Amino acid sequence: MNRAKIMSAEDLNRTYMRLAYQFLEPHDDPSRLAIIGMQTRGVYIGKRVCNIISEEFGYEIDFGVLDVTFYRDDFRTRLKMPDVKVTEIPFDLYERDIVLADDVLYTGRTVRSAMDALMAYGRPHSIRFCCMVDRGHRELPISADYVGLKLPTHVNEEVRVKVKELDGEDAIYVVQSPGEEA
User: Fold this and answer.
1) Which of 42, 66, 93, 134 has CA atoms 20 to 30 A from the CA of 109?
2) 3-state secondary structure 99-160
3) Pseudo-torsion of CA 11, 14, 18, 19, nearest 10°?
4) Angle at the Cα of 68 (from 75 to 121), degrees rounded to 5?
5) d(CA 122, CA 157)
6) Residue 80 contacts by C-beta under 8 Å, 6 or more apart in sequence?
7) What would the pLDDT profile of 157-173 be if each residue is shown by its tens digit?
């Protein structure tokens, strides 16, 4: 399998810091701001930015976790049992400015599912979307408000965002999809 490292741990640390600044920038008072990480790697990405906001700026931002499995438009068409993970949003969404965090933006379908899921939990004032990598190939009119890296890819490539907590390293790779030749 061909793979190329696109970002190192050091690159990602700078990106997390930049995202923390960008999340706070539109808010004179960030008390309405909350970050919700999308399962699985979006949880770790969102938590890292949340921790930087706390450590560097002294703001305690509410943090939640969202699983969109049952909100996906392909939920009933998959042959295997879905891998359902936890959703934990320990605060009221009403009139909150929510930033959804995920690892890769591709077709836009997962983000659409996440917005549907959030609306089932409450009515936020606003929803913004943050992804570590925007790889293009959208199927829905969805874009990211905050992007770590824009990385145009071929359809036969995959972007893999690695987080130390799950993968033992912080890095971003582009890999050739199995069975595909360049």
Assistant:
1) 93
2) EEEEEEECCCHHHHHHHHHHHHHCCCCEEEEEEEEECCCCCCCCCCCEEEEECCCCCCEEEE
3) 60
4) 125
5) 37
6) none
7) 999 999 999 999 999 99
Q: What is the pLDDT of residues 46-79, one digit of tens each?
A: 999 999 999 999 999 999 999 998 776 555 555 5
Mind listing the pLDDT tens digit for each residue in 74-90?
555 555 656 667 899 99
* Neighbouring-strand partners of residue 5: 173
Q: Look up tokens 């992007």; give the residue.
A: 147
Give me 137's structure tokens: 């190939």
pLDDT at 72: 62
Residue 176 token pair: 């050739």
CA atoms within a 13 Å half-sphere pointing along the CA-CB vector of 72:
18
- Residue type at 63 in one-letter notation: F
